[in-house]
Amino acid sequence: MERRPSFDVLVTRVATHLIGVNAATVSAGYEKVLENLVDYFDVDAAYLRHHDAQRRATVMVAEWPARTDVPDPDPLGTVTFRDADPVFAATEHLKEPLLFRPDPAMEDYRRRVESASGYTSISMASVPLVTRDTTTGTLGLVASGDREWSDEEVEAMKAIATLFSQLQARIDAEEHLRWAATHDALTGLLNRRGVSDLLSARLAGGGDAFAVLYFDLDRLKALNDFLGHSAGDTFLRTVGARLQRHSDADTLLARWGGDEFVVVLPGPMTEDDAYAEACRILTVVTARVDMAGEYVSRTASIGVALGIPGSGTVDSVIADADQAALAAKTAGGNQVSLFSSEIRERNELQNDIELHLRAAIEGESLLLHFQPEIDLTTDRITAVEALVRWQHPTRGMLPPVEFIAIAEAVNLATDLGRWVLHTACRTYASWRSTLGTLDIALRVNVSPAQLVSLDFVHTVREALSRYSLEPQYLCIEITEVAVVHDIVLAARALRDIRALGVRVAIDDFGTGYSSLSHLKTLPVDAVKIDREFVTHLATSRDDRAIVEAVTALARAYDLDLIAEGLEDVDARAVLLELGCTRAQGYLYARPQPADVVLEMLRIGTLTPS
């Protein structure tokens, strides 16, 4: 008869086997050890249970041999301590082995075991798994009938239970690291890596179209400023919890970064379905949150793009949804926008401009066109406005509306404005040199960022000096938006400009905010009536009333008044009737290259056409 190995040898063998077990092979590792224990101790079954502290339950994680014809639900699968029989209840905080043989006092436990395994009478040794003085599970041996347990057997079981505890702690640590690699610690949602991996798998597989939603929350910093530094984190956690509570199990939820979230809805999904679901989610994430008695909410704009399995990449579908979200925000915010070909084209243009604008400023692809300003009583040219254009290598001639806003967004507005100012002054000097004399104003538009930049006044002074231009011939034009951008810095810059002798005009007057207050507080020489009120001046009573009011304001403040967008003779007649005698627009001339404008200046007057 083969001699049974010693208990020390058994423990060593178990330790050697468990060293090579990882999270992927742990189930098979558990079963192999339990099989060996059944053979070694000559018992009918062995089991391993782990405690679920959150649910206050004990869960079967491995057993040998596997039971057949297990009832559903399994009476031994998950047992809550709150409703457990005395034997199971005793294992919740067990610190020393629990040994018993058939005993009428344990009838409830016996019936549970019989219902799940068929054993009518058992002896059992249950040994706790303990980590840092906390019971995390039990290792048990089961023998049918009556069996005694020796001290040596119990000590061996305790040693093996310790090995299982160590493995459990190691696997838990591995699982936590794996979870942390793919989840956001603040909200518990997937992180960028986690959702990207799962989204990539969906795109690579087959199946129906699904929807990807992208959104961010507006002005979280204001919460921190008002309610304390951690308020934003609390709000983000609440949003994450709401998304989990109001989403299906198949929906992927992720915090993409900062205050940005991604939601991947399962297919099949049409654009109408996706839009409706996005509207529902918008309601969920923008609902008010109780934060220490303060009820606050943040707006969000959601972009929606469809993911087509077998087409596109994670980057492309996220970019599409992000672009749609930007379109929603640009349209006023707190709404849903579906990605479209128009959005793609607009964003492709924006990306193109952002990538190549600096090179254009430093190179030779920018140019200026000039639009004359006319005295309506004499048709004499009184000024020219410099307007930048970009001769794009593939998109042709781009007007400023296509790239000025992007220049401001990527901090190139100051460089672009410096180029425009110097080029306009150089052109004016060239005209004057050619004509011998030139007594008209040069109007140059200035962006909000350029106006409040530290070197703006120096840039103007440098341009005047370099091109020997008398300051009274230069007029800086600003929009009301530029003023609102930073009223204090704007007023200071304009005062310094006026101190040089340069004139100042408010462009697009009437379309901004608090126009009257600006006239009272800012050093301004002229206002230009926005084309919106001039285009239909001859037929719109409202536009006529507005222009009449602006004319009266200009007269009251002793300001020059110029109408923009003059396109027909009837509007010209109304302007003259109301007392506005200067204008620019297509009725006289479109913006033209410098050499064409030079010929206009030779003549000095323009005829309405």
Automatic annotation (TrEMBL):
<dbReference type="InterPro" id="IPR003018">
    <property type="entry name" value="GAF"/>
</dbReference>
<protein>
    <submittedName>
        <fullName>Diguanylate cyclase (GGDEF)-like protein</fullName>
    </submittedName>
</protein>
<feature type="domain" description="GGDEF">
    <location>
        <begin position="208"/>
        <end position="341"/>
    </location>
</feature>
<feature type="domain" description="EAL">
    <location>
        <begin position="350"/>
        <end position="605"/>
    </location>
</feature>
<dbReference type="InterPro" id="IPR029787">
    <property type="entry name" value="Nucleotide_cyclase"/>
</dbReference>
<dbReference type="InterPro" id="IPR029016">
    <property type="entry name" value="GAF-like_dom_sf"/>
</dbReference>
<dbReference type="InterPro" id="IPR001633">
    <property type="entry name" value="EAL_dom"/>
</dbReference>
<dbReference type="Pfam" id="PF00990">
    <property type="entry name" value="GGDEF"/>
</dbReference>
<dbReference type="InterPro" id="IPR000160">
    <property type="entry name" value="GGDEF_dom"/>
</dbReference>
<dbReference type="InterPro" id="IPR035919">
    <property type="entry name" value="EAL_sf"/>
</dbReference>
<dbReference type="Pfam" id="PF00563">
    <property type="entry name" value="EAL"/>
</dbReference>
<dbReference type="InterPro" id="IPR043128">
    <property type="entry name" value="Rev_trsase/Diguanyl_cyclase"/>
</dbReference>
<dbReference type="Pfam" id="PF01590">
    <property type="entry name" value="GAF"/>
</dbReference>
<dbReference type="InterPro" id="IPR052155">
    <property type="entry name" value="Biofilm_reg_signaling"/>
</dbReference>
